[in-house]
Write a structure and sequence with these properties.
The complex is a heterotrimer of chains A (about 110), B (about 170) and C (about 140).
Chain A lengths: L1 H19 L3 H22 L22 H32 L4 H7 L2
Helix pairs in contact in A: 1-2, 2-3
Chain B lengths: L1 H20 L3 H21 L3 H22 L14 H23 L13 H5 L2 H5 L4 H9 L1 H21 L7
Chain C lengths: L2 H23 L8 H19 L6 H29 L24 H29 L2
Classes of the chains: A mainly alpha (about 110), B mainly alpha (about 170), C mainly alpha (about 140).
Chain lengths: ~110, ~170, ~140
């Protein structure tokens, strides 16, 4: 149970980064940390003690396999996380070119 | 085995906290790499080699894009004091405590760490090789049992690329 | 970049590209598959652009080419999935209609290797398009 609690503690660290920081890059890092922690939590649920990777070997010996269904879900989620982080960074570049700062309170004051 | 997982997770939490509190943006981005690469080691220990392959390359590409973004900015975060910080700290600690308590109540109903938690998994593992014909069960689940989810993922990737191309257009069409 | 980085990149990027193709094609036998191989191929192209600077490639032409390749790969994926409607005999959308050989040989598992190739090209082209779009934006605005 302590492993599940530590995983959610990583999620709370990411949430702190999004809510309490004023720099745009720190917010993007916070969102990415939240995505990583949820991927880890899904894989932790599917782990079986003494299991191996879910790939049949050449001699066909029967072994205990780890759950393949959460691994299939997380495999696509990792690539989607990269695409959304790249989209957020593109918006951050655009804001920096226009207002010349990464601080969201300055951007709120200047207003174009 | 459990001790190793806990040690690496504690290192990742420490790296994440340092990355959010650093003043220099370049130090923050490099400390963010600790979280990503620690996740690769955890995926290997949890017997998921496909995910470790993807996570290494994705983390390297994310670090490259982030450093390219912050390279020509001032790279310094200006800190100013704000009032009422003590009240914010107390409220956030109370919120974190409540969140962890309710999460502990919820995961008490799951089986313990290491038992087989889902009932559908044996229905996928046992006849999986004959129905799909592939020796890699994860690939069989992605493309045969769960094909619609892969189609949705391809659509999301395509939409993200369209979004990036739209945001970064410098001049309109003349 | 210095001459050491350029020489090492010249030697290594072909090998990385070949490794990515190997991981894609053997996706139903060993760990890997379309997503891992696609990101590795994108990584080899990004390494080439970083090491040789942006005067090396004609960036506009490459970005148009890679976004066309990405759209084409998604259309091939949809065409293979929709072919199950016409051929499959039952008329379901995503049915696995090619014959499945023996488990463990290279040509087996129906349409899964074709899906792997289509997804691999799509992921590689998508990541390359994102990176080239960021690079062109930085070049044009300075």
């Amino acid at each position: 149970m302590t492993i599940y609690l530590l995983c959610i503690a990583l999620f709370l660290v990411g949430l702190y980064g999004v809510v309490a920081k004023r720099n745009l890059i720190k917010m993007v890092i916070g969102i990415a940390i939240m995505e990583y922690s949820i991927n880890l939590f899904l894989i932790l649920i599917g782990y079986v003690k003494g299991g191996t990777a879910p790939i049949l070997s050449a001699d066909g010996a029967q072994r205990i396999f780890v759950d393949p269904l959460p691994q299939a879900m997380v495999l696509t989620a990792i690539v989607i996380g990269l695409a959304t982080t790249a989209l957020l960074l593109a918006i951050a570049i655009r804001l920096y070119k226009k207002y010349n700062t990464f601080d969201i309170r300055e951007i709120k004051k200047l207003k174009g | 085995m459990g001790i190793l997982l806990i040690v690496i997770l504690v290192l990742m939490i420490g790296g994440a906290l340092f990355s959010l509190e650093a003043r220099d943006l370049l130090s923050a981005v490099i400390a963010y790499g600790i979280v990503g690469f620690g996740l690769v080691i955890l995926f290997l220990l949890l017997q998921a080699p496909d995910l470790a392959l993807v996570q290494i390359v994705v983390e390297a590409i994310t670090l490259i894009i982030m450093i390219a973004v912050i390279m020509d900015s001032t790279r310094e975060e200006v800190k100013t004091k704000s009032k009422r910080t003590a009240a914010y700290v107390i409220v956030s600690i109370v919120f974190a405590g409540l969140f962890l308590y309710f999460f502990n109540r919820v995961t008490g109903t799951l089986s313990a760490f290491g038992e087989r938690a889902m009932r559908m998994s044996l229905a996928y593992i046992n006849p999986g090789a004959e129905i799909t014909g592939s020796a890699n069960l994860v690939t069989g689940v992605i493309f045969d049992f769960r094909g619609y989810d892969t189609l949705g993922e391809a659509t999301i990737l395509f939409t993200a690329v369209i979004g990036v191309l739209t945001v970064l257009r410098l001049k309109g069409r003349k | 970049m210095t001459i050491i980085v350029q020489k090492v990149t010249q030697m290594m990027c072909g090998i990385i590209f070949l490794y990515g193709i190997y991981i894609i094609v053997h996706g139903h036998l060993t760990p890997g598959g379309g997503f891992a191989g696609g990101t590795i191929i994108a990584g080899s192209f990004i390494l080439l652009v970083i090491a040789f600077g942006s005067e090396f490639l004609t960036l506009k032409k490459e970005e148009t080419g890679s976004s066309l390749l990405e759209s084409g790969a998604i259309l091939v994926f949809l065409a293979i999935a929709a072919a199950g409607l016409l051929i499959g005999g039952v008329g379901i959308f995503f049915v696995n209609f090619l014959p499945k050989g023996t488990v463990g040989s290279l040509i087996s598992a129906g349409i899964i290797p074709l899906f792997n190739i289509a997804i691999g090209i799509e992921v590689a082209a998508a990541l390359l398009t994102i990176f080239l779009a960021l690079l062109i934006y930085k070049e044009e605005s300075t």
